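Pasting as-is:
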Amino acid sequence: MQTIIWIILVIFSLILLGIISYFIIAKSKGRIEIILDKYQYSPGETINGKVKLIIKKPLVSKELKISLIGQQKIKSRKMNINRQNSRNEFKTIEVFNFAMPLHKQKEYTIGGQEINFQIKIPNNILNSQEPKVLGFLGAFDFSARKYPIKWYLSADLEVPGINPYSKKIQVNIG
């Protein structure tokens, strides 16, 4: 019995050590931030901001990009044809995604760097987004409820290996 407890403790310790090591390695490479003057926008406005990179070890990236993403949560009631196993289902779907590359492959040195960006918000962004809700084969959607669209800016620096270079912040468009 004691042997089983020791084995469980060793396995748990190794898993915990692996998780801690992952986060230490991720933070040792640096981080990415998104800096904006404001967080409330209207359709047709331009989002002006900066992506700030804090690099702790030299690296070569594949791409640095900034994205404007719209996500909507949908709740629907699913009912099978034979009226059994009715259930609520929640999905988060992407209704808008505009990605803009800021840099292609580039070598970054130790230190901080700021990259300016501008993204023009389309004039019809609020009324042109109509997500498609697809049911499963043999099931129908009843009383689908759509929640407000949540808007995000996401900055991603694609690097080989562990990728700690990703930041996502919420903005308001309306």
